[in-house]
Amino acid sequence: MNNQLNVPITGGCFCGGLRYRVDQQPFGQANCHCRACQHATGGAYAPVLLVPTAALVIEGEYREYQSSGDSGHTVTRVFCGHCGTTVFAATTRVETMRPIYAVTLDQPELFSPTLDAWTDFAQPWVPMDESLPKFRRDLPAESAGLPPPPRRRR
Ligand SMILES: [Zn+2]
Ligand SMILES: [Zn+2]
User: Fold this and answer.
1) How far apart are CA 10 and CA 90, in angstroms?
2) What is the total count of domains within the chain?
3) What are residue 127's phi and psi, to 5 degrees?
């Protein structure tokens, strides 16, 4: 379903002090409208790649900020202490998956979102692609690399 990216996927912060590579295709690609992503990016929403934690290699120094996310899980934001770019997140909901902020990709133009998540928190002034599926809260388990739940919820 997702557009394929060039593997390894590489990127980093604005100053180059914090770099990463991912040796597998992401589980999913999403626009996250949660409040934590809004604050982390300073934008209306965060375009994120959802990658396997085991396939992510981080190089360089970084700082972290933890908060209680809209999901009730602890959300960690990982950013460069020098230039301030938020590069990764982590959530205790799914420890086998890490969101990467897509603007930090070396080829950010290859990002291709397939859904909008946390739209209950979306700003009224942000335009959205109406053709993408919308999830009022958390994104579906499959996009986070989890097996689908036995009962589908919408
Ligand atoms: Zn930096
Ligand atoms: Zn978010």
Assistant:
1) 18
2) 1
3) -75, 140
- Cα–Cα distance between 118 and 137 in angstroms, integer? 4
CA 13 to ligand 1 centroid distance, Å = 4
For 91, the enclosing helix (H) or strand (E) is strand 86-91
Which tokens sit at 54? 């085991």
Distance between Cα 105 and ligand 2 center (Å)? 17
Distance 75 CA to ligand 2 centre (A): 9
Look up the domain containing 70 and give its range. Answer: 9-122
| Predicted confidence (pLDDT) per residue in 108-154, tens digit | 999 999 999 999 999 999 999 999 999 999 888 888 888 877 766 55
Is 136 within a domain?
no
Q: Is residue 152 part of a domain?
A: no
CATH classification of the domain holding 59: 2.170.150.70
Span from the CA of 154 to the centroid of ligand 1 (angstroms): 38
